[in-house]
Amino acid sequence: MHEFQNLHSTNKTRIQEFVRGHFYGHLDFSLDKTLFFFIAGRYEFSNKGADIFLESLSRLNYLLRVHRNDMTVVVFFIMPAKTNNFNVESLKGQAVRKQLWDTAHAVKEKFGKKLYESLLTGQIPDMNTILDRDDLTIMKRAIYATQRHSLPPVTTHNMLDDSADPILFNVRRIGLFNARNDRVKIIFHPEFLSSTSPLLPMDYEDFVRGCNLGVFPSYYEPWGYTPGKL
């Protein structure tokens, strides 16, 4: 059991890193109070039960908001569709996340060195002066880069037929646009997962281990067929 718990923790951390980038500028929910759900398989909107899954997510979002629950549910739709590439906003989100990570580590290294040297002299450092003006400027620039005037995208790719896509059409109908007050967030990843992806570099098996729940409400297949064949 410890092995599976460790694998879940490791892969969940990787998913959290992706979510941090995808929702940059709107990351006003706690990842410690976030559950990751997913549905995956061939893109058969009704046969695979994506239709009733979206309806249930709409009702779940309503109930969480009405009861002022601080839990957030991030739901992944992993179903291949016709696209021409990753969308710019999704790639930018991961770039912003990496830039913030690099900035935090650079400042941490300088902070740690000054703290170490101060302690060696037997003094408690003045926290108001341990960060110099350059450090503050770098951090302010990093924070400015996280400003976002649009909502986080629902899909990670540029869809070839956005207006007629069943998932996106129904997302618009039920109004799950990843707004700040939505407790259910949607991420449609219209291709199968791969560890070589520049956006979400995870194989399906690792991704599944990192999630909290997989939902497969297929109309015509016995339980286990869909998740077992992916």
Give a structural overview:
With 230 residues, the protein is an alpha/beta fold. It has seven helices and six strands, in the order αβαββααβαβαβα. It has helices at 2-22, 50-66, 88-120, 133-145, 166-174, 204-210, 225-229, and strands at 34-40, 72-78, 83-86, 157-159, 184-189, 213-214. The strands form two sheets. The protein has a four-stranded parallel beta sheet with strand order 5-2-1-6, covered by helices on one side. The chain starts with a helix and ends with a helix. The model has no long low-confidence stretch (mean pLDDT 92).
Structural key phrases:
230 residues; alpha/beta; two-stranded antiparallel sheet; 6 strands; 46% helix; 13% strand; elongated
Element layout with pairings:
Layout: H1 2-22, E1 34-40, H2 50-66, E2 72-78, E3 83-86, H3 88-120, H4 133-145, E4 157-159, H5 166-174, E5 184-189, H6 204-210, E6 213-214, H7 225-229
Parallel strand pairs: 1-2, 1-6, 2-5
Antiparallel strand pairs: 3-4
Helix pairs in contact: 1-3, 1-6, 2-5, 3-4
Main β-sheet, spatial strand arrangement: 5-2-1-6
SSE order in H/E notation? HEHEEHHEHEHEH
Instruction: Give the % helix.
Output: 40-55%
Overall geometry: elongated
Number of helices: 7
Structural class: alpha/beta
> Which regions have little confidence, pLDDT < 50, spanning 5+ residues?
none
From the alpha carbons, calculate the radius of gyration and give it in angstroms.
21 Å
Secondary structure tally: strands: 6
Q: Sheet with the most strands?
A: 4 strands, parallel
Strand content: 5-15%
